[in-house]
């Protein structure tokens, strides 16, 4: 997603720099990164300036697209380049990391985003833009879009300002908590969760549990339509592997702590029983653990 958005920002004429973890080598004073974004009809290359955490230049606008469990260390590495006037946009799956970042950096302001853009990596800097979607941005407590959003809205990736981003984020969390752990454990494409009777029953019970937790957290409207929304997402992504299944199959750490783990923490705070989610978190963490031990 980072490459997709960096390329779109650059192509819209906005000065865009790619931040990398790598130390630059060689004699180049101005290192660059070439991004290739391919879709069904074309392939577009953009060469963007690059900087790493050895740089000190001020960052006025920062887009972060790391995994949820990496965002704290990513932010820590560039914190010296940010100030309270910097606009920091977190396009990251899950919930719970915002509270951690606010505790780490109380003077910084964060904007959150979720996207339905579909993209996957062909090679390190070569991305296939598989499906067009919508990116929803918002800042808890800020209903109107800030002035910088006007420039952002000119990029070639459809975006809207969400007056209630917390509800949008919770809805995405609830859907991911229903689909991702089940598909990861059963190692099945999303569609199996409605096509296989045993799995459909498991999904239905899990959705009921997630709905109860949603109601207790003040998201009754989400709870009321969750079963339908989950079914729609599954139908629309029937042959896809969920991101959690992809992580498990690739031997990567999953985002369980910031998905079902976060849901569980919110249930515990309100003394809501969540046996199915508890069980799923334990099983996925075991798989995460076995990856760590084997690697
Ligand atoms: O967002 C997804 C994910 O895989 O993380 C869903 C909606 C489950 C689609 O696969």
Describe this structure in words.
The protein has 295 residues and is α/β, with parallel strands linked by helices. The protein folds into two domains: 2-163, 3-Layer(aba) Sandwich (Rossmann fold), CATH 3.40.50; 167-287, N-(1-d-carboxylethyl)-l-norvaline Dehydrogenase, domain 2 (Orthogonal Bundle). Helix content is 44%, strand content 18%. The protein has eleven helices and ten strands. It has helices at 2-11, 71-78, 97-104, 148-152, 165-186, 192-195, 197-216, 220-236, 243-249, 260-269, 275-294, and strands spanning 18-20, 32-38, 43-52, 61-64, 87-91, 110-115, 118-123, 126-131, 135-138, 159-161. The strands form two sheets. The protein has a five-stranded mixed β-sheet with strand order 1-3-2-8-7. A five-stranded mixed β-sheet has the order 4-5-6-9-10. Helix 7 (197-216) packs antiparallel against helix 8. The radius of gyration is 20 Å and the shape is globular. It starts with a helix and ends with a helix. Bound molecules: ketopantoate. Ketopantoate binds next to helix 5.
How would you briefly describe this protein structure?
This protein has 295 residues and is of the alpha/beta class.
Provide the descriptors you would attach to this structure in a database record:
globular, N-(1-d-carboxylethyl)-l-norvaline Dehydrogenase, domain 2, alpha/beta, 295 residues, Rossmann fold, five-stranded mixed sheet, binds ketopantoate, single chain
Q: What is the second-level CATH architecture of the largest domain?
A: 3-Layer(aba) Sandwich
**CA gyration radius, whole angstroms:** 20 Å
Number of helices: 11
Order of helices and strands: HEEEEHEHEEEEHEHHHHHHH
Provide the structure class: alpha/beta
CATH topology of the largest domain: Rossmann fold
Secondary structure tally: strands: 10
> Spans with pLDDT under 50 lasting ≥5 residues?
none
Could you give a short account of the major beta sheet? 5 strands, mixed
| CATH class category of the largest domain | Alpha Beta
Shape: globular
Oligomer: single chain
Chemical compounds bound to the protein: ketopantoate
What do we call the CATH homologous superfamily of the largest domain? NAD(P)-binding Rossmann-like Domain
Mean of residue pLDDT?
93
Give the N-to-C terminal Cα separation.
26 Å
Helix content range of the residues, please? 40-55%
Domains, number: 2
Order of strands across the main sheet: 1-3-2-8-7
Strand-residue fraction?
15-25%
């Amino acid at each position: 997603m980072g490459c997709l958005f960096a390329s779109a920002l650059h192509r819209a004429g906005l000065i865009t720099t790619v931040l990398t973890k790598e130390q630059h080598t060689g004699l180049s004073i101005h290192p660059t990164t070439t991004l290739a974004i391919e879709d069904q009809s074309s392939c577009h290359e953009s060469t963007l300036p690059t900087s790493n955490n050895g740089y000190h230049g001020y960052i006025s606008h920062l887009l972060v697209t790391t995994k949820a469990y990496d965002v704290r260390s990513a932010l820590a590495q560039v914190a010296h380049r940010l100030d309270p006037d910097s606009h920091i946009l977190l396009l990251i799956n899950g919930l719970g990391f915002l509270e951690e970042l606010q505790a780490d950096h109380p003077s910084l302001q964060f904007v959150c985003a979720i996207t339905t853009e579909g993209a996957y990596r062909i090679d390190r800097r070569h991305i296939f833009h598989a499906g067009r979607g919508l990116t929803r941005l918002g800042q808890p407590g800020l209903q109107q879009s800030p002035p910088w959003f006007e420039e952002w809205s000119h990029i070639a990736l459809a975006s809207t300002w969400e007056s209630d981003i917390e509800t949008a984020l919770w809805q995405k969390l609830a859907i991911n908590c229903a689909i991702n752990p089940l598909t990861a454990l059963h190692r099945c494409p999303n569609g199996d969760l409605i096509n296989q009777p045993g799995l459909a029953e498991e999904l239905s019970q899990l959705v009921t549990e997630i709905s109860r937790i949603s109601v207790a957290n003040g998201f009754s409207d989400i709870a009321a339509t969750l079963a339908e929304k989950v079914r729609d997402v599954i139908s629309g992504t029937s042959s896809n592997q969920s991101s959690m299944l992809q992580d498990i199959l690739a031997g990567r750490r999953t985002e369980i702590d910031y998905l079902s783990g976060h849901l569980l923490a919110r249930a515990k705070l309100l003394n809501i029983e969540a046996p199915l989610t508890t069980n799923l978190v334990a099983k996925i963490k075991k798989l995460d653990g076995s990856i760590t031990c084997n690697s």
